[in-house]
Amino acid sequence: MVAIPAESFHETKRADFLCSFLESEGLSPSRYGNNIVVRQAVNDPDKPVLMLNAHIDTVAAASGYSFDPLNPPAERFRVLGLGSNDDGASVVCMIYTFIHAVREKLELPVNLLLALSCEEERSGERGMRMLRRVVEREADFAIVGEPTGMKAAVAEKGLLVVDAVCEGKSAHCAHSELGVNAIYKAVEAIGAIKNLQFDRISPSMGGIGLNITQINAGTAHNVIPDSCSFVIDIRTTECYTNEEIMDILRKAAPQCSLNARNMLNHASATPQGHPLLRTAEKLKVETYVSPTTSDWMRLSIPAIKMGPGDSNRSHQADEFVYRDEIADGLKKYIEFISNC
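RESULT FIELD:
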């Protein structure tokens, strides 16, 4: 699977491969674009439906790979290659968890639904944002597979990316009094945004994280720039809606135009007392709050995030996952769904 290119928005070949593989295992996958859903042949109407979700797409390969990221060398203890850790290990473990449950006719306390989504890495409209309209009619709660070391993330911050533009007036630097320097306006705006205080603190996620991550301006050394753009990366909590955050930003920096790339990426938290939390407690699964986002933020049903691998390896050159991590992930997924 790792050897098949699947950068976000270009997952067709990998989806084709996975559908063929699932069919060869006697399953009947349904295709929604490049998303794949597999249902049990028969569901028990008295049991809730647990969705196993992982994403099949990858980021573009980072620079600095010491091998071809799509033709990695074979190793005894590791699986290497682009997307092996994020999110190939979870995809493989969830597929085989589903196959094992069907093949062994496990008596589970839940019905299972397998959902393999695309476009996760770029928040695409044809990934979980589209697929949720299908799966949320059927699933009651979910495990979202991401590299967490099989710890259970019971909350994750949301993501709000904002493009800001400050407009000025160009002029020759020898006559700077005739212009309005957009960089100076941006510096003032960035200072105001940096000093914002978000007073509502989440008991599980803490405060909002806000960083200026990109800036661009100017065409030549001797021209007063008439435009300066910058990007704001905001890791949100449940204490503020994205609309509230945008209102606060616009009041702090009225000299800028501010536009959010996506208002749908909200913070997520597993409801207190939910069976997913009770199962994690029963099995002594370590829980934590995740600083990274996932398809969880696109779901309205309760969920946890849990999968094999290490988040610190994601999007890095020479990406890999240990074979033992895959074996451990499969074992723990089966144990978890048997106790939900």
